[in-house]
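pinging the channel bc i need a second pair of eyes. not urgent but kinda urgent?? the chain im working w is below, pasted from the shared doc
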Amino acid sequence: MKKAHLRRLGLGTALLLGSALAVVGPTQEELNNADASTDSWLMYNKGYKAQRHSALDLVNAGNVAGLKRVCTFDTKDDGGFQATPQVYKGVIFVTQMYRTFAIDAKTCKALWIHKYVTPDSSVLTTNRGLAIADGVLYRGTPNAHLIALDAGTGRQLWDTKVADSTVGYFHSAAPVYYNGKVLIGDAGADWGIKAKMHAFDAKTGKKVWDFNLIPTGQEFGAETWKKADSTVTGGGSTWTSYTVDTDTGHVYISVGNPAPDFAAQYRPGDNLFTNSVLELNADTGKYVNHYQQIPADDKDYDTAAAPTLYEVNGEKRMAVPTKAGWLFGYNEADKAQVFKQAMIKVTNQEKPTTRQGLAICPNYSAGSQWSGASFDGVNSQLVVPAVDWCGVVKLGEVRLIKGQLFFGGSMQLDPADKATGQVRSFDAATGQPKWTFSLKGTRIVGGVTTTAGNLTMFGAMDGTLYALDSRTGKVLWKDNVDKALIGGGVATYNQGGKQYFAVVAGNSSKGAVGGPKNVTGRVAIYSLP
């Protein structure tokens, strides 16, 4: 390896290990075809439709038992790791809290590392990924900036401040690039922010448009906030990533809970666009449609995962799971709800929170968190991770303190050993359950990936990576990734005629699940010998 050297620009530092990479894509056409591509995994959810499905079948239900770990890259960070490896031209790009990594997709060799340095405070440092286009990477930061990096060297190209992190704004979502724009939304609802969705010029970082996720004044939806003052701290985070229909040019945005989380009486009304999937024109930011899953939420039941677009029986559909434990399906032709299916035990959700405490299922750390459905067209099913776990919610004082949680109450979780992680299959047309895989005493929160080889791949928070038979849910193979809790997703790709799987492990959410305290983040790559 050549001697490492350091490049500096603005507040970022890039450590280039060896020669610079020649990264000139992906083009818009490549991005449009990302859902079908077999040699890449270009977005957090693979492609614009967020289907998390690969047409690869070199590794399949018949031979997956021979899968072996090829290599491991250790990030050396003991922090949140909830990304999915993103792969282009033989390179994995992956983000952690303040660092972005480029590693060889076959050998785990580090190619460059960029560290974002900031004097600003952050309330949450989680980051779930990036957008890549035309040789440039785009990612949000814990201090609510959007930055651009040269994909070949990690050199920082520009840095745009989007919002004020000192009052609770941050950017955890993996942005999406579309037609020369980078789309990203604010997070921080639990700290009493008022979120927006933004579009920036990819070349300059200048803002092109924004959209108020908490409408005010004469904006459509403002009438659903019957106490106008409550919109100032109304919440509405975008947590994970976004979905684009390239046929219409529309972006679908999952918008999380209103604030304060538990005190609905402080913000009477349905509270649009919280707990909704919002559909906007990606070029202009103009409103198109919305689908609200839970009006006037008082239990922190975000719609957090990006929705999935798919076709079944000749119809275009959109499906989205929520933290409340429901899987919703919609017909895109008339925007009508087709199904609402319980994924886990759901109790007392219609009852209001009280000061004495209300026992509910699930609690706010259960249901489907930041990972949505995988659409397996081979078996006409939606495969979804979920957590069955209950708790008690209590109403409390509504008091906003800058930079502190704005709950208006509290949530007591049942003991961690009562949690059950699940991967469930549902008929893509009707939403009816097909099969269930369960793990008692742990959670399954990372992204699920299905393949044409009848494999369903995912990791659990006990550090185990699983391969199930997509037709039955039967375990075909498993391997523990160094006891590193898996909160991220699995990517699969073809390199040189071999199919590889890459997963991130080492998520820091140990307080609720137990687990080793000093297992650092890592990317593990698997293939057949």
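so Confidence is low (pLDDT under 50) at residues 1-10. and Helices lie at 28-32. — does that match what u expected or am i reading it wrong
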